[in-house]
Specification:
The complex is a heterodimer of chains A (99) and B (201). Chain A has 99 residues and is of the alpha+beta class. Chain A has a single domain, classed as Winged helix-like DNA-binding domain superfamily/Winged helix DNA-binding domain (Arc Repressor Mutant, subunit A, Orthogonal Bundle). Helices cover 60% and strands 18% of the residues of chain A. Chain A is built from five helices and three strands; from the N terminus they run H-H-E-H-H-E-E-H. Chain A has helices spanning 2-7, 15-26, 32-39, 43-55, 78-97, and strands at residues 30-31, 59-66, 69-76. In chain A, strand 2 (59-66) and strand 3 form a beta hairpin. Chain B is mainly α. Chain B has helices at 2-21, 28-54, 59-92, 99-124, 131-146, 153-170, 175-199. Classes of the chains: A alpha+beta (99), B mainly alpha (201). The interface between A and B is medium-sized, with 19 and 17 residues.
Amino acid sequence: MDGILKNINKAFDNRVRLGIMSILAVNESATFTRLKDLLEVTDGNLASHLKALEKENYIMVEKSFVGRKPQTTYRITEKGRKAFRLHIEALEKLIRGSK
Amino acid sequence: MKNQKYLEDIREIKELMNRSAKFLSLSGLSGVFAGFYALLGVIVAQWALGQYQTSNWSKETIIYFLIFLALIILILSVGTALWFSYRKAQQRNYKIWDVAARNMVADALIPLLTGGLWSLILIMRGQYSFLVPSMLVFYGLSLTTASRYTYGMVYYLGLAEILIGLLALIWPAYNLWWWALGFGIFHVLYGILMYIRFDRH
């Protein structure tokens, strides 16, 4: 049991952070606006969660310009992908184990 | 107690993965209507072929009539699909023209445009008996490629269309019936299945 709980990642213990990781796991990249639309959260809320994941090196940020508009794009890192996979596996084990 | 939350988390992960990577506004009703138009078209085509055999319709008249008919069915089907997708997107609060939709259209467009040009060349060269098999095969190919970005069931509809197209190529005498089967009956059946599985609440 301890082994499983070890993989339950505190960084993903939040609806928005879990959502960001889910989206980035299956999309090559996603812009800030697209994440905001899919998750239905405010700019400030989303930004703070993105920062937290970035700090853990789970996602990386790219800033670019589309015409004159700045655009921020996010991608999942290898480290993030691995941590997220372990997290999902741990969730599944916990659910199955208690049935 | 805690378990409920884990289940909720898994459900949320799945839902977001699907919704972010796939075009889910596609409605089963689009399929039902497209199939319905195609079957109506077959009835009209039957009538026209009767005219061609019994009255003084020329070969050119009948061929251009049938091509025109097919174009009308295509426009009606696409129009209906767009309308139902728009409605479903609004009901579920999805964005209709998002990255997933763009990916899907871009993927489908290559075999679809190739098929369109291919058919045009067949018409120019007077190879009319190859038209139905080509339309079915290229349409099937575009469905299998597009299925990556939408409901997985689209893939199997694509395979079925390719199979019917190949059969039509072997027995072109029944072209009208292959067309009715591929574009008509398959669309209706698939649309009903999809509606029951994904659209009904």
